[in-house]
Amino acid sequence: MVNMYYEADVNKEALRGKTIAIIGYGSQGHAQAQNLRDSGHQVIVGLRPGKSWDQAVKDGFQVVTVAEAASRADVVQILMPDERQAQVYRDEIASNLKAGATLCFSHGFNIHFGQIVPPADVDVIMVAPKSPGHLVRRVFQEGFGVPGLIAVHQDASGKAKETALAYASGIGCTKAGVIETTFREETETDLFGEQAVLCGGVSELVKAGFDTLVEAGYKPEIAYFECLHELKLIVDLMYEGGLARMRYSISDTAEYGDYSTGRRIITEETRKEMKKVLAEIQDGTFARNWILENQANRPAFNARRRLEAEHGIEQVGAKLRSMMSWLNNETKKEEAKVGQ
Ligand code: NDP
Ligand code: MG
Ligand code: MG
Fold first, then answer.
1. Which of 8, 103, 254, 295 has the fewest Cβ atoms within 10 Å of its own Cβ atom?
2. Which residues bind NADP(+) per the record (predicted)?
3. Looking at the structure, do residues 116 and 241 belong to the same domain, yes or no?
């Protein structure tokens, strides 16, 4: 069984009188910084001058350079994009860390794949909310919290886990429940999930279904609704009550089609390929490719992003969504910008 932790397991003293530096004020940064402050902790934000800096000041934080934040903090939580962290750590954080400080992450990539190698006298922990940043904040404001993971990579003080739990409590996670994991497990399962299922798997499945219908002469608008739009309704049911709840809600015809056809789509060959994908995550092949891609200024990433935006499903989708008055205006504004 996994170790689960709740409010009652937290030693609230663990972060008393400590200064927490949040490095980066994006999706996770703005949410974690504000939740910690509302929980009574002393928070400073470390950034470079720019949009995020201005926003953090507007939100009432003391904002300083990354180097200064690192030098003043007892806990340094690194919440910049993963592919930026190693360089900023090397140039601005490493030499400024206090002895005995705690270095914290919300994803294990840079520690697990050796891009950041902290000195032996600091604690290295992970507190990873299992949720996008805006939900970390919103759910906290509603008086609850999102579930989270904690892990300890290096325990110089002997109190690393206590610190991790107190931090998790400060951002609300212990209200929902916190699971203990390792940097290795979090990193490898996170990468596998997004590649094989959540992002890579789902987007290719959606496009393949859409293309099949359109190539057979059906209207792209109908294909969009069947293969993309309705996905949300199905996923919401799974989220609420697993596959059984989804199957309870759909028609028996749909359920029979689910059982008879699913395994013809996700075949033994697909499962074999998933194992290969996992092996390439475990042996560092994926990490190396992504690190080198960034060092080369992302030629393949940018080309692929452009090609994906040109796919028919995106064109017809943008048109259809502009008629869906219930979709939130921010999404539409973003799309209008992309279309310019
Ligand atoms: P974001 O892309 O939202 O973070 C961007 C922030 O980093 C901005 O404030 C940006 O400031 C700042 N930043 C970028 N480069 C620098 C730099 N050189 N110096 C100082 N600040 C810089 O990141 P996320 O919140 O998405 O991810 C943060 C971490 O959390 C990652 O490890 C990620 O894996 C993890 N995570 C993210 C989740 C999510 O929901 N997004 C979910 C769970 C974990 P500027 O405006 O100046 O560019
Ligand atoms: Mg991820
Ligand atoms: Mg249908």
1. 8
2. 25-28, 48, 52, 133
3. no
